[in-house]
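Forwarding the complex inputs:
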Amino acid sequence: MLEELEEIRKRHLEMIKAAADPESLNEERVSALGKKGDLTSLLKTLKNIAPADRPAAGQRINAVRREIEQALAEATSRMEAKQQEIRLSQETIDVTLPAKRIRYGHSHPNTKALREMEKIFIGMGYEVVEGPEIEKDYYNFEALNIPANHPAKDEQDTFYINGEMLLRTQTSGTQIHEMEKGKIPIRMIAPGRVYRADEVDATHSPVFHQVEGLVVDKGITFADLKGTLDMFAKELFGADTRTRFRPHHFPFTEPSAEMDVSCFKCGGKGCRFCKGEGWIEILGCGMVHPHVLEMSGIDPEVYSGFAFGVGLERIALLKYGIDDMRLMIENDERFLKQF
Amino acid sequence: MVTSLDWIKKYVPGLSCTDQEYFDKMTMSGTKVEGWKRLDHNLEKIVVGRVEEITKHPDADHLLVCKVNIGSEMLQICTSATNLKVGDVVPVCTDGGRVAGGHDGGPMPENGIKIKAGKMRGVDSQGMMCGIEELGSSRNFYPEAPENGIYVFPKDKEPELGSDAVEALGMHDTVFDYEITSNRVDCYSMIGIAREAAATFDKPFTPPVVTVKENPAVKTADLIKVTIEAPDLCSRYIARVCTDVKIAPSPEWMQKCLRNSGIRPINNLVDITNYVMLEYGQPMHAYDYDTLAGAEIRVRRAKDGETFTTLDDQERKLDHDVLMICDGEKEVGLAGIMGGENSMITDHVKTVLFEAATFDGTNIRKSSKRIGLRTDASGIFEKGLDPRNAEEAINRACQLMVELGCGTPAEGMVDVKQPIPDLRRIKFEPEKINAYLGTDLSAEEMLTIFRKEQLGYDEETKEIVIPSFRQDLKQMCDMAEEVARFHGYDNIPSTLPKSSSTRGGLTDKLAMEDVARDIAERNGFDEAETFSFESPKVFDKLKIEADSPLRNAIRISNPLGEDYSIMRTIPLNGILTSLATNYNRRNKDVRLYELASVYLPIGELPITDYPDERQTLTLGFYGDGDFFTLKGVVEDLFEAYGLIGPHAKENKKIAELAKESARAGHPIDSAERNRVIMDTSEKHPFLHPGRQADILYNGKKFGFLGELHPDVARNYELDDRVYVAVIDLKSILPYISFEPHFEGIAKFPAMTRDISMVVPKSVTARSIEDVILSKGGKILESYRLFDIYEGKQIALGYKSMAYTLTFRNKERTLEEDEVNKAMEKILKGLEELGIVLRS
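Prediction (whole assembly, two chains):
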């Protein structure tokens, strides 16, 4: 029997070694270890030998079984590895084929610029609010120290609905709405559409956007206005940006100023972009006129404040180097996709 | 406002700065300079020469050869000009020099034209004699210059040979152009700008000292009587009379001042009124006294429908609000705007009446606009003048009359006026100014600034005394601005507000809009921006019914044109126009969205109060995609707002909405709760009748979507299927929630069942899903349509549909039986719809 066992062992180990594919390996497994397999049959003959020799013989048979099992396992994994290798080599792809991308849409450059500005001011504790576009004369003019008959009210600039209602020419009316709520301190910015009777050209549109800013509290100073807007300019245009405040006049602020930033193309040396001046005008600002505070129910002896107004298109055009206002309202996707 | 720097220096003799320094410092102290121009720009090596000999060019008929004496030498110069005579004194550009432009007065090259000695048709020419255009000016400013040819100095004003001809022509000067803000009426004058310049550069200010040498034998009061019948429109009227008027050219110094400030010299009398207008910012008018009937002036309103011929020979139609200057019989001038032809100064004038008045600015502005005549004078009057200025100015004019030998002022003036208010006084509160500005300046530093500006100070009362020319200074904040301007805005520190902290952030509405942007962009839509106003024709273009409330649009009373005259009530036109632009430019597969308002009147038109500005999201596309692409965006949006999907379960605001609907008599079926339902019960005329739906959610409509009606597409020249959606964000706002709700991950296994059906075509997916939802019971987790087919193998009028249903019990493992029972109910329900189940 031992000779037979050795013969079985040898034969099967060789066959396993020679197996070319998983099928023949499986056949080998069945013919060696299966119910009717060689080792099973041999095990059945144990009853023919002397009982005393049976355990030893059984152990021998089991040892061979383990050996064959191991050989089978090794062969299987060898074969799998080989097959995987073949599969991987067949699966080679041309990695230079085009990428698959989800084509997202793009925000309008105005929105991009506004989000940047909102982020800066929200970080400084400003709330973003809105006011009506179809506005009462009072909020657009009178409450801003622009009484009836003021040349700024001239019909050629303002779209009127009728004597009482108009399309707001500035977002400044939002200041009044906010102050009338009577909650101080106020720190707000108010973006929105404004309207002026200008024909469309490379630098004008009858519909455009402003971002209004207002701070009201005890002890607000002109120095605070300078510091706040200087920080805003540095955040928006880069840390190296310098600001310059020039005296100006707005009926609803006193003192008033226009803020220039150092040209971000040439750094202030003077170039074609800044028309050789080194400075670019960005916004108008000033201390809220005490009369304006008073009309909105705020005591100017106790509180003071500053306000500013930025042309959103102006910022977007400057920041992104857009040279024609008309592009902003045509909505050609070849333009929009660049933002 | 334009000034010659030389003229400013008359009042600020110590002023010595480069043009750039003047530009910078004036701008930074608040007198914004827009730009400047050197009048001698590109004028080099131009001297005075006398023509000594003129001969014909031997080889060219159109050329002359001149010998020109420039003092130090005799030059030979060829010229094609024909206006020269021997003895004429002319400007000569010598070899290596430069002139500003060509003789035709066309656009001037940036670097001028270089002049070199050379030969002209074989004859030496050592320079060029210059016409006034070549010197960068025109006959408008040098009326004595010939129409074509070389400028010849007038005989009585011939400068020395060899001297600087540019100097002799008064061209070594710089002209500055300012943007004067509306509060600084005083700066519409040389004296006003000079006052600012003196304060800016800290130099003495020397205004003219005005004294009038009068003829005591003639009294103005005997010559003229003035009556103001409309004191509300004219607060002061001063008349002075000058006799023995002799009209002649004004002296060169005055001509230079006028020319370099952009005014054409005419004669001594006209130049004096113009000079004084520029110098004092006070327009004046001169009448031929002998044309005035009744030796009187009456200032009154015109009668409606009256006409009047102004001195430009135009007949003007008047009304009751136009102020007129009249004599004893007739109208002689449109007050503050233009004089009349009938009292115009001619060369034969013997006696002149000067008028210096203070008219109501608003009235002048409105009248000038209505009449359609805006003049230099009206432009100044409309800003509202200081009544004290009139007196200074009229006396200055009389002083100049004497100085120029133009006439003899009669004694005294006739001055009719409303009481002139006292000078304003403002309490000097240096600590308040410092607190307002964030500065730490001493009282003395501030007073020094005020003194530089010619403001007064009353030591006793500690009040700043405001001169009448500074009508803009009214209270502490104005004084703070003066301190800031001359201390320098740059020298004020930069600080951040120290005060209480505030919470920054977006309103819910803005946060909602940002989410809408994100969803639209994630789905490939680019953001567009279009106008809020449009043409009333849009309604026809969109096939909107004649009686639709959408046609109730708010009208602009003064639009840019009919095409921009109504505030939009529906946002489609903007997006469709933009899609058409893209289509026309052959851009493929374009998807656009816009977030903008529509403007709906509340109540009857015209509106008297705020209308309803409704923020809407509009989506539109052509090319790749279909109705269901848009439906997907809508569902994405509703999910992001917490209205459908897992988060909706914790959104308490929706329950309110359901209750509202119930109260309004539309209780919501449980199967319909928290679902975006495509409601096809009503039709929009601008959409494809079979491919449109309203967006219904918990009983309320939040917008619509669909394929554009081919007629409408054609109206926009869009030759493709176009899909649009309009979502009324304002009505959704009260129900949104961005609160996520985690409901755990299912622990127990699910069971799925597939149903395959043959469905009559008229049965919608919605009605099948309604059955699934209402019969599926609690264990129904989800359902999904995985196949839909029409055509071969399916009978006509039917479609094949297949759903996968998923069942799960959250608390325990499902029993087969439970699912079977649910399925039985569902299948029964489906059969009732006429659906045949396929095995």
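The longest strand of chain B covers residues 44-56.
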